[in-house]
Amino acid sequence: NAGVTQTPKFRVLKTGQSMTLLCAQDMNHEYMYWYRQDPGMGLRLIHYSVGEGTTAKGEVPDGYNVSRLKKQNFLLGLESAAPSQTSVYFCASSQGLAGRYEQYFGPGTRLTVT
Amino acid sequence: LAKTTQPISMDSYEGQEVNITCSHNNIATNDYITWYQQFPSQGPRFIIQGYKTKVTNEVASLFIPADRKSSTLSLPRVSLSDTAVYYCLVGTDSWGKLQFGAGTQVVVTP
Q: A82: Cβ–Cβ under 8 A, 6 or more apart, which residues?
């Protein structure tokens, strides 16, 4: 049982390049989330999904897009990377609403945009 | 959106009790309070969750006063392995309104 996995673990992009971060969970959770973590700011919710085929915006969605084509996968895309998107990105999943149910986090992806 | 505030850092010695208080003045009626622990280069890990009064599990206790405008995570008899960042999360049933605190770095020394 791997839990929540994220690929890649590290990535360096040049400004304007695009990339996709992949999150996978094997716990059959309906709910999945993408967060970014910056020093001194805790975790901020980017986008989330309440089930296959559904996505919604979180607190800081600008510059990101997501897709949930399969229940176990949640993809985060950056169409045109900016230095302000340098951060550590965490994916999480839960069996119910995140404020009420335990979230299981992946190990994170460290992204640097130069 | 409930803004959460917690101390930036706390130091402790092994065997002592550590209490971390999170302020959330704008907490909504349906919000729960959850605490997570994070080690370097890892994702956060669930510790404990509560709605009101006191909750205890095998690793921590959570105290929530009647007005619910703050909460205190209590770690009894800490060890070196408890050195980590602890996050307070105030959540609501309304989607997208999840507010993590900035985190408290706890350092435990021998």
A: A15, A63, A113
CB pairs under 8 A between A and B: 63
> Is B7 in contact with B19 (CB distance < 8 Å)?
no
Residue B79 CB coordination number (10 Å): 11
CB contact under 8 A, B46 and A102: yes
Residues A55-79 pLDDT 10s: 999 989 999 999 999 999 999 999 9
For residues A1 and B107, the model is more confident at B107
Rounded CA separation B64/B70 (Å): 7
Residues in chain A within 8 Å Cβ distance of B34: 99, 102
A109-113 vs A10-13, strand pairing mode? parallel
Chain-chain contact of B93 with A100 (C-beta, under 8 angstroms): yes
